[in-house]
Each structure stands twice: as structure tokens, then as C-alpha cells.
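Notebook entry, structure prediction.
Reason for the run: the old model in the group folder had no record of what sequence produced it. Starting over properly, with the input documented here first.
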Amino acid sequence: MADDVEQFIQQHELEKVALIGHSMGAKVAMTVALRSPDLLRALIPVDNAPVDANLGNDLRKYAQGMLEIERRDINNQAEADKILQAYEKGSEKPRKWDIRVVLTCGV
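New structure, fully documented this time:
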């Protein structure tokens, strides 16, 4: 994901951007800042987990589900939810929010 952000900044010829990231996006933003500090003028990480957080395999499986939605070119929230149910345990609420992000922006 950091590769995508760096590529976006470069393709749009943006100079010294302020990069804001929330949760996992904060980790992505911090990765960009570490790898390409010359692209940024400011970094604003919000609500990110501690550096040593053990995310386990659940996150990897969940990311695979998000990629599956994109591969199948799903644009319906109910269909996307069915796919993610196979990959993710727990609350439906975060999954619904993530689906909206994928359907709107892509992974």
C-alpha cells in the first residue's frame, strides 16, 4: 500500500504533501515517511496500534478477502460482505465500513 501512495504522489507530481493516515492507513503513512521522507512535509498518523502489536494471521486473511472483492470486480455491498464472511471473524460493523471503502476506492 505504501508503494501505491508513493506512486500516486509521484504520478500527480505533488510536492511535499501532508500525509494523514488512520489505523492501518497510519502504518502506511509512516512507511511512506520512513522510505521516502523527501515526498512529505508533514505526517499525521491517527489511531494506530503500537509498533509491536501482534496482528496475527487474521489480518492477512482479511486482506486476502479484500483483494478477492477487487479481483471479482464486486460493486455490491451484500456480495462483498458474503466474501468477507469467509475470511473474517467477529463484528460485522467494521467489516461493513471496510467494504464501503473498497467499493468506493479500491484496495
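Summary: The CA atoms of residues 8 and 42 lie 17 Å apart.
The old model has been moved to the deprecated folder.
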